[in-house]
Write a structure and sequence with these properties.
Strand content: 5-15%
Strand order of the largest sheet: 1-3-2-4-5
Helix content: 40-55%
Number of strands: 9
Number of helices: 23
Radius of gyration: 20 Å
Length: 400
């Protein structure tokens, strides 16, 4: 933990209203400034106790405090450094260690996730039994989406009409295996807007989940492989359609100690930068746009998705109250901290319901699963789509 970064905090409290765990519990040590106080204690010699580790584990890493902070405190860097220390020093209970090993030996590996697909129809029925065995396993089952048929993407999707750019595309892990239709829509939208899209089939995990959990060695190994894959592909831009992945990939230089040979951009960020050329067909829908934390707070991408959606004829975008408060997904948070994630999911679902929208639009697979699950529990099932799917339907003139 960097003492200089810790000392940037003046304990003003502007972060408190934006912090999801402080909003839930009102506990000072479960606020950003409270956790920074604990970090300072550790730097000054206090060992990481189980209670201290619990406060750090309870942080979602949503970065809403970074947006709110008037002093420019780099809490994002601090919490990542702290989690490395927690993983190094704190001895977890055997059951907790086992659950974490399941999560981190499964989710960053698409081929392993693929083995779960034939059993996905069973997960909703199994959730109550698994929950009794372990809350994290129950949460994992309850969050599982209804998976569509796998869609194989070619190595190259050629631009429609005049070629304006050549880009690489990250397929991701959860996105690739549980939301294949999102990747297919992303490739089509980029092609329809004049891009040749290179999709290296050998690409794996970007390392984001491991970075956010303090598993530095695993993160560097996965990130290094991702960098080599796209550098071999010869692209100077990699487009990402998952907020958490994009956030971590934009910080590869810090993680790996060198700048990769390409820049990383979110899909909505890139399309706004490129400018529209393809015709938009009307979509008579009311949609609620959800700000994924690692898109809005970590990457600062807020206006672009709204501009793209607002550019579709007959589509109305409605804002969700408390949009800055995390939905509780936060990478693996809803698996490792299921009760807090459940409560935040309920809060977000209630906020979505007030919009009266027909469709919820999100730019992160974790958020999609989290909010959809909470809406089902509330008896208010709502259709959920990625920004890419909405644009794809409009560009092709088909129903969503």
């Amino acid at each position: 933990m960097d003492p200089n970064l810790i000392n940037d905090c003046v304990h003003c409290g502007f972060c408190l209203p934006t912090c999801p765990t402080y909003a839930l519990w009102g506990e000072e040590m479960d606020s950003p400034r409270g956790r920074i106080h604990l970090m300072k204690q550790h730097v000054e010699g206090t060992p990481i106790t189980p209670e201290m580790a619990g406060h750090f584990d309870a942080c979602l890493g949503c970065m809403a405090c970074v947006t709110a902070c008037p002093s420019g405190v780099q809490y994002d860097r601090l919490i990542e450094q702290t989690r490395v220390e927690v993983e190094r020093e704190h001895v977890r209970e055997p059951q907790e260690r086992a659950v974490r090993e399941i999560v981190f030996q499964l989710f960053p590996y698409p081929r392993r996730l693929r083995l779960l697909r034939p059993m996905m129809w069973l997960t909703e029925r199994m959730a109550p039994f698994l929950r009794r065995a372990n809350p994290s396993l129950g949460a994992m089952a309850a969050l599982a989406p209804r998976v569509e048929h796998r869609q194989r993407l070619p190595r190259l999707v050629r631009a429609r009409g005049e070629r304006r750019a050549v880009v690489g595309m990250l397929m991701g892990c959860v996105q690739r295996e549980f939301f294949p239709q999102v990747n297919a829509a992303t490739a089509r939208v980029l092609a329809l807007e004049g891009c040749d899209v290179l999709i290296p089939p050998e690409q794996g995990c970007c390392g984001a989940l491991s970075v956010h959990a303090g598993r530095g060695e695993q993160a560097r190994r996965l990130a290094g492989r991702a960098v080599r894959t796209f550098e071999r592909a010869g692209v100077d831009t990699v487009v990402v359609n998952a907020a958490g992945c994009g956030s971590s990939m934009k910080e590869y230089a810090e993680l790996l100690g060198r700048e990769p040979g390409f820049r990383v951009v979110d899909l909505s960020e890139y399309l706004a930068e490129l400018g529209p050329v393809a015709k938009r067909h009307p979509l008579p829908l009311t949609v609620a746009y959800h700000d994924a934390c690692h898109l809005a707070h970590a990457q600062g991408v807020r206006s672009q998705p709204r501009e793209l959606l607002s550019g579709i004829p007959d589509l109305e975008v409605r804002e969700i109250p408390e949009s800055a408060i995390c939905c509780g997904s936060a990478g693996t948070y809803n698996l490792l901290q299921p009760q807090a994630a459940h409560d935040l999911g309920e809060r977000k679902a209630a906020a979505v319901r007030t919009t009266g929208a027909e469709l919820l639009v999100s730019a992160n697979p974790g958020c999609t699963m989290q909010i959809a699950s909470a809406m089902r529990r509330a008896g208010a099932d709502i259709r959920v789509a990625h920004t890419a799917e909405v644009l794809d339907a409009s560009l092709r003139g088909v129903e969503l």
